[in-house]
Write a structure and sequence with these properties.
Layout: E1 9-12, H1 18-29, E2 33-38, H2 41-55, E3 59-63, H3 69-78, E4 84-87, H4 102-130, E5 133-138, H5 151-167, E6 176-183, H6 189-202, H7 206-216, H8 225-235, E7 247-250
Parallel strand pairs: 1-2, 1-4, 2-3, 4-5, 5-6, 6-7
Organism: Comamonas antarctica
Protein name: SDR family oxidoreductase
Keywords: Plasmid
Length: about 260
């Protein structure tokens, strides 16, 4: 299927590795030009170079922190009018709520709720004026099934979900959609970090924790980042113009509910 977005431009946050990079790769495979954003220069430039070689699209690599006003300004200076925005930021560290002070909570809200809201604010009107826009927020399956040691993420990402539910319906008539992708257990650095925390808390070997998590998933495995990237690319397609304000769960069937 041709997704109809060849020649469009996407701004993909936190895209030097993991699920952000997977989204960038899948968009580039459709001929989408990219602005990639991350804090680490070496990994970001390596990713940008590889995507250029593989897909032949234009790639701007911006070293910046999307959670800061300066970082957001730098991202939009590279390409002020993106057609596609993929909001993403590393999740807060796992831990226990009794250890989190106000500063810790504010940092989590800045990264996983307020920064994506601000990026939406900065790009939404231009998309509406051009009569095309696709915004995808990478959140977490924890929005639907909270994970106890990820309380910072549970709270911040749920706030973003509530905001999107309100704003998305006000712009779909202008062919601008806003949706959330909720990853379950994908084989990323984040999953390994969470497994290490769980193993340490429960006195178990990390390998055993990972094996148990794979076996517990109805799919019997972890997700592959490219599967996630392709789902993102579809939500950015012309075919997905009637999909908005949705939370698409990619978890191999882990979530047991009907809704």
């Amino acid at each position: 299927m041709k997704l109809g977005i060849e020649g469009r431009h996407a701004l993909v946050c936190a895209s030097s590795r993991g699920l952000g990079r997977a989204c960038a790769e899948s968009l580039a495979a459709e001929g989408v030009h990219l602005t990639l954003l991350a804090r680490g220069r070496e990994a970001l430039e390596d990713t940008a170079a590889q995507i250029r070689r593989t897909h032949g699209v234009t790639v701007h690599a911006v070293v910046a922190d999307i959670t800061t006003p300066e970082g957001r300004a730098a991202a939009l200076a590279a390409h002020p009018a993106p057609d596609i925005l993929v909001n993403n930021a590393g999740g807060p560290k796992p831990g226990h709520f009794r250890d989190w002070d106000r500063a810790t909570w504010i940092a989590a809200l800045d990264a996983n709720m307020l920064a994506p809201i601000e990026m939406i604010r900065l790009t939404l009107d231009g998309m509406a004026a051009r009569r095309f826009g696709r915004i995808v927020n990478i959140t977490s399956s924890a929005v639907k099934a909270p994970i106890d040691i990820l309380g910072l993420s549970n709270g911040a990402r749920s706030g973003l979900t509530g905001f999107v539910a309100g704003i998305a319906r006000t712009h779909v008539a202008h062919n601008v959609t806003i949706n959330n992708l909720l990853p379950g257990p994908f084989e990323t650095d984040r999953l390994l970090e969470t497994a290490r925390q769980w193993a340490a808390d429960n006195g178990l070997p990390e390998g055993e924790v990972l094996a148990r998590r794979r076996a517990a998933n109805p799919a019997g495995r972890f997700g592959r980042p490219e599967e996630f990237g392709d789902a993102c690319a579809f939500l950015c397609s012309v075919q997905a113009g009637f999909i908005t304000a949705q939370n698409l769960l990619l978890d191999g069937g882990s979530y047991p509910g009907t809704f």
